[in-house]
Amino acid sequence: MTARLGRLAALALCGLTACADDADPTKDAAPKPGDWAYGRKVRLAQASDGALEVRAADGGSALFGLAARGVMARAFKAERSGVGVLQFIHKDVQGDELKAGTLSVSADGSSAQLLFKSATSDRSAQLKAQVDGEHFTVFSVTTTGTADSYAIPVRCDAAASFFGFGEQYNALDQRGEAFELLVNEQGNGRDGSGGVSVGDAHSVYFPMPTWIDARGWGVHFDGHQRVRVDLCKQDADVAWIEVIGAKTLTWRVLHGPTPLGVVRQLGDLLGRPKPPPSWAYQLWIGTQGGRAKVLAEADALEAAGIPVAALWAQDWGGIRKNLDGGFGVHYVWKPDEFLIANPADALYPDFKGLVDGLHARGYKFLVYANPFIPKEVQPDRFAAMAKGGMLVKNADGSVYEDALVPNLPQKDGHPDFGDADTLPFIAGELGAMIRDYGVDGWMHDFGEWVPVDGHHTDGSDPIERRNSFPVDWNRAARMAADAERPNNDFAWIGRSGHSGVQRYAQIHWVGDQETNWSKLDGLPTVVPAVLNLGLSGQPFVTHDIAGFAKGKPSTKELWMRWTELGAFTPVMRTHEGADKLNNWSWEKDAETTAHFRKFTFIHCALRPTFEALAAEAAVTSAPLLRAMVLAFPDDPKARGLADQYMIGDALLVAPVLEEGATTRTLYLPAGTWFDVWTGEAVVGGKSVTRPAPLGTLPVFAREADMPALRQAESKLKFATCRP
Q1: What CA–CA distance (Å, rounded) separates 407 from 373?
Q2: Which of 718, 720, 723 is nearest to 301 (CA)?
Q3: pLDDT (mean) for 557-563
Q4: CATH label, 2-38+627-721, candidates 3.40.640.10, 1.10.10.60, 3.30.720.120, 2.60.40.1180
Q5: What is the largest CA-CA distance in the chain?
Q6: CA nearest 5: which of 703, 674, 708?
Q7: What is the spatial distance between Cα 496 and Cα 205, in angstroms, rounded to a whole number?
Q8: pTM to 2 decimals?
Q9: What is the pLDDT of residues 211-252, one digit of tens each?
């Protein structure tokens, strides 16, 4: 399989540049979904300590196992703080360990039952497990008695690892960490100091109660409840998975037998995104400031010889200044010419004409949308949704108008997807953006601010709605895109997510990093975030070059290093950031422009590779950017690396993530690797330190050199890298 993917990547590059004479375009032109194993027979068994475990049926090693502990039931009072970043503190906690009774396993190991009972209360929990073919074993726990949460004890042996959990920024293997899985703002700052919008190391837009063990199996907990995990931090031999607010807990063991096989099984379970259109793998430029500014930037990019596929403007609804002085967006789904008293004063007069003109020049044009329904700015939409019962409500049935949102001081309503009319209504409104203005996509922002004290038409738990909202928000975009662009000539980037969003989403970006080098919230957090998304079944990813959040303005060095990373990301996309007037950008000086042009062509050379991998992901969920554990699960030195990655199985990328660095140390697994900038062959199985001045990041091809990358700028034509 490694050789097949190596040839795949090399042949994809041949589509744009010259290749060796012995390349055979008819041989193994595309990977076959069955090329890598993704299923094995297992049986349920009793471990030596009496606990239940899943074992390979051929007598091999144990996979998932419960720890020899009881289920924990807890009653508590929870105090919460914050809005965008919600934090819960559990007080007056009363714990009750439900002791395990006699384990019953069927003779063939296909099913098992176990009763847990309390010695001091009427609480009990009935566990049933059933092997479901070669891909899944299903566990369910049905509880009785009054408790606010139940915690499952999972065995944590010496070799256990915990990769994934959605979009985590801190690391890949979360062993030794304890955190909560609830859709949240990333936070303006992530130091854990508290406040309305200050997060911590695990405040993420896209959490999931899912992990992969490097030994080749995984676990997924069903539902959208709030989940707390303690991954061998409190108890060295137990990983506690606590589900809050559920009377029945269901989880699945994904059998593997490889980490990549687990990703495929997760896709079978939750669904897979449709691949983006071909032009999405070419450069997107973030531009704003009005019609004249957008057209002038397009002219300047062409004059500089920088090929661009798409322009996107977040301020199409007008400029709004943030409270901190940065530039924000109006929460509208229309151009500002329809929102102000005198259309002649609009930033974007004749918006449809602007879009049509850019289309004629070969550009795609994208805009911005988020799910808030502001009463003052969108009065017609607010009134229609309020009248139809499609907005989240207060206990008395009135509309929940939230003023504690990023759009202070206006008040906003929130779509109530518990009402059956809300989803088609929102999809129709989003579809009108495509139909009326001809736009080709948008930033599908937010989805994390659903109030947890609101009321929904169907009576659903508002905290569960916090986690399920991003699924519905992206589903609305999918419905709009499929209705208006059934040929899939449409792209959007979503921010929030949870289990099941994969079925509807397209591309996810990893949020609002600060424009700095911080390991809490800057450039270094991008790589683990995109890799953990891939481990969680979202193969299509992007990020803001060079960050967004307003702190200190981005520097030239940061911008150039972030550009280098962007070139080796499926969707290479810039953002002017919240401090757009002071942030660095591509046109600031000649060196930056030349640097940007070079890496734009390198990214263009990679487009056929990304498209080929996307076709594979549509069937297998295999991420385009892969954590080393997916490609080298048997190499302990490679598994946990969170600062380098593979593009498919053929290219290893080690971006420079440290300010002032001119060298980069990376790990090359066993085999022969070729430095794509020099063609030098290097024997792997060791760490190497390579020169990495600005304009060079270590990139190695596996098994065969890829001269097409170093030749990209000289051999590719401008027109080749346009849609």
Answers
A1: 11
A2: 718
A3: 98
A4: 2.60.40.1180
A5: 79
A6: 703
A7: 5
A8: 0.95
A9: 999 999 999 999 999 999 999 999 999 999 999 999 999 999
